[in-house]
Amino acid sequence: MTTIQEENAILGARIKVIGIGGGGTNAINSMIKEQKCPGVEFYAMNTDAQHLAKSNVEEQNRILIATNNGKRLGLGAGSRPEVGRKAAEESREEIARALEGADMVYIAGGMGGGTGTGVAPVVAGIAKEMGILTVAVVTMPYGWEGKRRWNYAVEGRRGLLQNAHTVITVRNDSLTKALEAQGLEIGLEDAFKRVDSVLSDGVTGVVGIIKEDGVMNLDYADVETVMTHEGPSLMGIGYAEGPNRVEEATFAAIHNPLLERDIRGATGVILSVSGKNVQYHELLQAGRIVASFVDPDATLITGASNNPEAKDGELRITIVATGFPEDVIDEEYPGFLDGGMQQVGGMQQMGGMQQMGGMQHGKVEAPISAYTESVNAPKGPSSVDDFRNRLNEMKKFQGGSRPSWMQNK
To answer: For 12-29, how does the pLDDT look when each residue is reduced to its tens digit (9 = 90+)?
Structure first.
């Protein structure tokens, strides 16, 4: 047993993070370098031997996926998903050996290329067949990468939705537009690094919930309960400081500009509150806000942890929402988007946002419109002040009819 395996045997769930293709491998390289996920096992899978050799993953955990019965061994998939898919099918035994013993598998990768698009759905299917809780965190390509690559990405993501328990998706264009809205000009290399960081945050956001020592613990079984609400999922992280930090951090997590919509319609939600000195009333307040967005019958699991390494006075809210009845990502090709202030999912970009760990977090300035309209869900609050008014209304609510804003529109 390795040291990490021994720790997992004592602490519980054994979690493996699998980076697939160039994008996935870059993401886990970042996690390893920054030590973002202590207590998990990292694996890299690629059809490109040269890229695989540069991975920060331990050599025994680097899995080279062969193509054409070994005739193209290590030469890559040539941006053709069917080549990656065939390679993965031919490498099922090697993949299964890498997954063996895991309770939970995280798959990180970029959709649109040959390896990530072709291999990831196969790996997810094998993991699910082995009875492993399988979560995929993937990115969709930039519009300027072309319609063919976008269509490949759509098909790859559909394959993941069929094979994984939960799929969290981020569109690269949403990241770029969020940065442009802040007046940030970034180069091509930096843009892709930020995408890698988003994949990294998508993994560490949930792994951290399980691994952190909590005042009110969320363990693997809690996460499994929500993650088995199969289908498309969303994850948001919000940070805030000051007297209104709960409302502002929760609002930022729910209305994250990298997401296509908010959490309305989810059947399972994980809420994690973390900081140096989390108060009970703050956990209660965050729970009330999140509950106001979801169906009363939704599974809502809440946890809190005191993190001694957190910034003084800063509160972190992590929300994972699963089991949406419809897709949360628009599959239509976005085209070659121009720059400047854009709308993401029907919502103007938020002001006052700060870049933290590659994902957009921070204080939100009102007014902000809801991402989407839903026939069977209440409209989301339009500002932090609206949040406070709704909370006051809920506190006074002792039964009878629901508050007016919770009525179906």
So the answer is: 789 999 999 999 999 999
**Dihedral class, residue 5 (left if φ above 0, else alpha if ψ from -120 to 50, else beta):** alpha
Pairing status of strand 314-322 against strand 268-275:
antiparallel
Look at the block and give the residue holding tokens 């957190």. 310
Q: How confident is the model at residue 48 (pLDDT cuts 50, 70, 90)?
A: very high
Name the binding residues: 22-26, 114-116, 145, 149, 196
Q: Which domain holds residue 337?
A: 244-406
Torsion of CA 318, 249, 381, 271, to 10 degrees: 20
pTM of the model: 0.75
Q: Which residues are annotated as a binding site for GTP?
A: 22-26, 114-116, 145, 149, 196
CATH code of the domain containing 333? 3.30.1330.20
Structural domains counted in the chain: 2
Q: In angstroms, rounded to a whole number, what is the distance separating the alpha carbons of residues 351 and 363?
A: 8
pLDDT in tens, 283-330: 999 999 999 988 888 999 888 887 777 889 999 998 989 988 777 677
pLDDT for res 394: 53
- The answer to the question of residue 248 being in a domain is yes
Q: Classify residue 58: in a domain, yes or no.
A: yes
Q: For residue 348, give the H/E element and its range.
A: strand 347-348
